[in-house]
Amino acid sequence: MTERAVDVSVSQQDDPILLALRDATIGDYEVLAELGRGGMAAVYLAHDLALDRKVAIKVLFPALLTGEGAAERFMREARTAASLNHPNIIPIYAVKEHESLLYIVMRFVGGRGLDSVLEERPTLPIPMVKAILNEVGEALGYAHRRGVIHRDIKPGNILLDEEGRAVITDFGIAKVSAADSITRTGGVVGTPSYMSPEQCTAGEVTGASDQYSLGLVGYEMLTGDRPFTGESVMQLMYLRCTQDPPPIAEARPDCPPDLAKALMRMLRREPQNRWDSVESAVEAVGSPPSGERDAIRREMAVLAESGQSRRISMGIRTPTSPVPATKEQAVTAGAKPARGLRTRQLWLRWVVPALAAVAVISWLVLRGWGGGPAIQAGPAFILAPEAVAPSGTTATVAAGLEITPPSLTLDAGTAAPLIARATDESGDLLPGAVIEWETSDPAVAGVSALGIVTGLKAGLAIITASSGGVVITSTVTVRALPAGVPREPAPAANAAAVRSIELSPSLDSFPVGRAQPFAVELRDVAGNVVAGRSVSWTSSSPSVATVSLDGVVTALGEGTTRITASSEGVSRSATLVVVPVPVARIEITPNAPSVAVGEAIQLTAVLRDGSGQRLRSRPVDWSSGAPGIATVSFGGSVTGVAAGQAEIIASSSGREARAAVIVTPGEPAPEAAQPTSESIEAVLTAFARAVESRDMTQLRRAYPGMTPDEEEAYRGMFRLVQEFDLRVDRPIDIRGTSAFATGTARYVDRGSEQSFSYRATLDLTSSIWQLTSISFAQQ
């Protein structure tokens, strides 16, 4: 079936949720774009203004929270989910309520949904299946011990991140929505293809339900199909409640019997017959062999990098959402959808079929299904759809390339990643560019489409990365033992056994791009040094740092990894924190800035390392030494307040730079205002024209007393205002150098006219009236 593009071209101006979210988050987040939406929520990409980072904001549809106490229940349950702190659970940063809007702010991570992986690779290798089940199971066990149940485990809610880890998304959201739907309709929320039998019959949902759903995911990863399919949701649920899954070995003969047995027990219909806990289930599933874990994680990281959701996020210059793009299954069809089908589901598209299911399934459960055993009558169902439609992509062209590391040494039979970063004309990171890889000698070293280099035989190869005509290379040296030289002999039978391993050097932090050899010292039970033994090396996160066969560690990206040396069954690990390259100096441009009172100028801080290379994507803090003369925003925009000189400071990672900004007087007023009513009216008229012009510089001149909070409010008003004028009441209350004016403001918003009363305060300074404050009240 031909893949169909997802239509998410909802006009931002016509999206009431987007507009409401922007109003609710003014000053905290800049909401950039919609990433996707499903049956319960819409997800938006946003910029956290205070912490200068990308986040994802998930807004629950108001229609789901209309029941009594629903909002309070949502806040309570979502806060419980936010308390979870586990490396395999996407963290929740904030849970907020604004009028009728309830939304969750989450971490924004790169990666790919497991369902997207299964579309391209319907079955996965046994070790990878075990790795995913272990990581997801550990996260579920952690949550269950804290009384939190997910209720909607499915491939679409499991994400493979850039480090090759399996991470659970939407933790706690399904439970919150379920609690509300039970109150409103006597229904439950779940994805039909992955619901447990007790969910299908609206029974008590416990951690055993998550275990069953995880078992379905494991079954699908092994066989390429779900164990139950049907022509309708009702038939699908009936099969799950009355029949056992087909044996895994029929579809996957190479599946180890212990793994198949563990999964089949997870899929037993009665919760009490499953494993006592999800941890017990994971233990029965078993872990991948220790020698294969690094290779598995590298392959999972490669799958994450190549996903559609990552390409989409690159098109809008941001990491991917923690809600991965998911495959769709129509609510009225329980059969497995064709691979590759993508479509956007709106709320009504699943509510209407679900309401039909309410009537049909209620009738069937009460009278018994086709003469079979009657299922106990229970609440009806509100079924969650299985799709979140992501935004489309935009092609980008690189102006420059950077490659890390510029040279690489590895042993024959091993692999290591090269990382190429595309940049635009200003030198900023351009993740949307397509990068192609080539090797000068395929017999020496091969390179994948994602830059993973594999050493094949001893020699030298040049690896080339290109994008849009821009080319950059990395020299790869592949080492091998000389011909005829035997490998290290096995220790003699009477040799002392290795009992401990010492690693050196001891490093707390490690800068990106650095290569450092590690040394080991093997000792026997008496503490004597043992020589002539082989040592193997592994890195828990190859995307953070790799380690060669002889213990040379190369830092590739920020993060934490564990470097492990093993010999004769004894291991020793060292935790390595890879940190950004230190900032050596900061340059502020332009060199000699000047700005007029009421005007603004943009300053830029360029960070460089010790070798003079530019450091990108680093936070910079801005401050003003004389805010009475000039202020500076968090992004480096300087605004003149009064004539004089102000020192502007840019700081990052303990380094700082200073720039002297000259503030010149603004344009003089055409004529000095006299303390008369006419001159005061002229000031208020100028204020109204400035608001109507939507020009913040003009508004600052007309309203010099405007506060930062008022400025943000007027910026939001600019998006909507069409006409704005003021009528001044007479007489105006003039008291020496102060005046107090009242009147009516008329405001036209998208064709709708509104009126407000206002009160303005003006001060006479150097024979000129200046507006110092103005407040409005609804009439």
Description:
The two termini are 60 Å apart. The chain folds into six domains: 96 residues, Phosphorylase Kinase, domain 1 (2-Layer Sandwich); 257 residues, Transferase(Phosphotransferase), domain 1; 80 residues, Immunoglobulin-like, CATH 2.60.40.1080; 80 residues, Immunoglobulin-like, CATH 2.60.40.1080; 80 residues, Immunoglobulin-like (Sandwich), CATH 2.60.40; 102 residues, Roll (Nuclear Transport Factor 2, Chain: A), CATH 3.10.450.50. It is 25% helix and 31% strand. It is an alpha+beta fold. The longest helix is centred in the middle third of the chain and has 21 residues. A hairpin with a 2-residue loop joins strand 35 and strand 36. The N terminus is likely disordered.
Range of helix content: 10-25%
Strand content: 25-35%
The CATH homologous superfamily name of the largest domain equals Transferase(Phosphotransferase) domain 1
Q: Which structural category fits the helices and strands?
A: alpha+beta
Q: Briefly, what is this?
A:
This protein is of the alpha+beta class. Helices cover 25% and strands 31% of the residues.
List the helices and strands and how they pair.
Layout: H1 16-24, E1 29-37, E2 41-48, E3 53-60, H2 70-82, E4 92-98, E5 101-107, E6 111-113, H3 114-120, H4 126-145, E7 158-161, E8 166-168, H5 173-185, H6 197-200, H7 207-223, H8 233-242, H9 248-251, H10 257-266, H11 278-285, H12 293-305, H13 308-315, H14 347-367, E9 400-404, E10 407-411, E11 415-417, E12 419-423, E13 436-439, E14 445-447, E15 452-455, E16 459-467, E17 470-479, E18 500-504, E19 509-511, E20 515-517, E21 519-523, E22 536-539, E23 545-547, E24 552-555, E25 559-567, E26 570-579, E27 585-589, E28 594-596, E29 600-602, E30 604-608, E31 614-615, E32 621-624, E33 630-632, E34 637-640, E35 644-652, E36 655-664, H15 677-693, H16 696-702, H17 708-718, E37 721-728, E38 733-735, E39 738-749, E40 752-765, E41 768-778
Parallel strand pairs: 10-17, 19-26, 28-36
Antiparallel strand pairs: 1-2, 2-3, 3-5, 4-5, 6-7, 7-8, 9-12, 11-15, 13-16, 14-15, 16-17, 18-21, 20-24, 22-25, 23-24, 25-26, 27-30, 29-34, 30-31, 32-35, 33-34, 35-36, 37-39, 38-39, 39-40, 40-41
Helix pairs in contact: 2-5, 4-7, 4-11, 10-11, 15-16
